[in-house]
Amino acid sequence: MKGQVLFVIWRESIEALLLIGIIYAWIKQHVDSQSGLRYLWGGIAIGIGSSILLALLIYGVFNVLNDTEQSLFMIIMEFTACILIVQMVYWMNSHSHSMKSDIVSGLEQQTEKQNWWGVTFIVAIAIAREGSEIVVFLSGFIMSLNASNAIDFFTEVAGGIAIAALTLYLFSLINHYVPWRIFFNVTGVVLLFLAVSLLLKGVEEGINLLLEYDYPIPDFLYLPAWNSTGFIDDSGVVGNLLNAFFGYRSQPIWLSVIVFIAYWIVISALFLRRKKHA
């Protein structure tokens, strides 16, 4: 859906660019900065290349499967993306305050050993991690790419990266007033809603697949819980936006309602537990 690609690329690119910025600033202060920068760009290239290979692998695997296998593959990728988003938001919530010191500490250990290849490895892993998360998050879009939608997809990708670079620049001017932790917390909440949206999509596609093969399912699970079409129709502009980012359904089935509630109970317990142990 339009907007999801732009948001995910924007949010994840900010993390990747922030990591690169921290490492770049540290290397520039080093006595052998010229050598360090070559290894930095090498690490970035390896990380980006790894992410592109993963995207091509997903696209290739999807296109050799039959219709049922494609449906199952899509469902698995949607569940995987949901888990990865939650994991990533949890990690950022736990490490955003110490991310810079952790990275610098790792770089110092490598350069003390006079091992610039270690710096390349750190950078490559960091970029590949962000890139692979993006690829998995957007796997549904990647698998459905064709001649008619490819231009729109890659335009949103390029737009997300450009807006991320602009956001970083603007934020560097006001970060004394608005800490990065607040930024990541706010966007993290939106990502958690995106995760439940992917989860609901996977659950609904799964139950449709089971019904298609006449698998016995309790009737109430796929019956509409309510109808709010008269208030906000999820096929309209506003409803479609709420559907894409927050999992809104104007006529949700009971299974979706149960999954939505269970998801937020688990998320609340997970983050409250981390807060208690912080």
From TrEMBL:
Keywords: Membrane, Transmembrane, Transmembrane helix. The chain crosses the membrane at residues 6-27, 39-59, 71-91, 157-175, 182-200, 253-272. It comes from Photobacterium carnosum. This is FTR1 family iron permease. Belongs to the oxidase-dependent Fe transporter (OFeT) (TC 9.A.10.1) family. It is found in: Membrane. Pfam families: FTR1 (PF03239). Coiled coil: none annotated. It is a multi-pass membrane protein.
